[in-house]
Amino acid sequence: MKNFLEYIKKYGATAVLVAWLMHTNYRVAILESKLYSCLERNQFMQQYQKQNACILPKQLTYETEGNS
């Protein structure tokens, strides 16, 4: 922290901009890694996800419509 303050005193706005860019780059790198892991997880789930479908008998559908 002391070094950082010395750089700001010595280089002024340039040092502040460099610090801001480093901080922003760090945050973007974290966000990018989270997005890639989310993308990979979604692709994996889509690849192995089974489509579930069921056929209900007409009698059961009539019973459920009458209860509403």
Features:
single chain, 68 residues, mainly alpha, rod-shaped
Topology overview:
Layout: H1 2-11, H2 13-48, H3 58-67
Provide an overview of this structure.
This protein is mostly helical and 68 residues long. The protein is 82% helix and 0% strand. The chain has three helices and no strands. The protein has helices spanning 2-11, 13-48, 58-67.
SS content category:
mainly alpha
Molecular shape:
rod-shaped
Strand portion: under 5%
Topology, number of strands: 0
How many distinct domains? 1
Overall average pLDDT: 81
User: What is the H/E order?
Assistant: HHH
Summed up, the helix count is 3
Helix content: over 70%
* Biggest sheet overview: none
Oligomer: single chain
Query: What is the CA-atom radius of gyration, in angstroms?
Result: 28 Å
Low-confidence stretches: none
Distance between the termini: 67 Å
Could you give a short description of this structure?
82% of the residues lie in helices and 0% in strands.
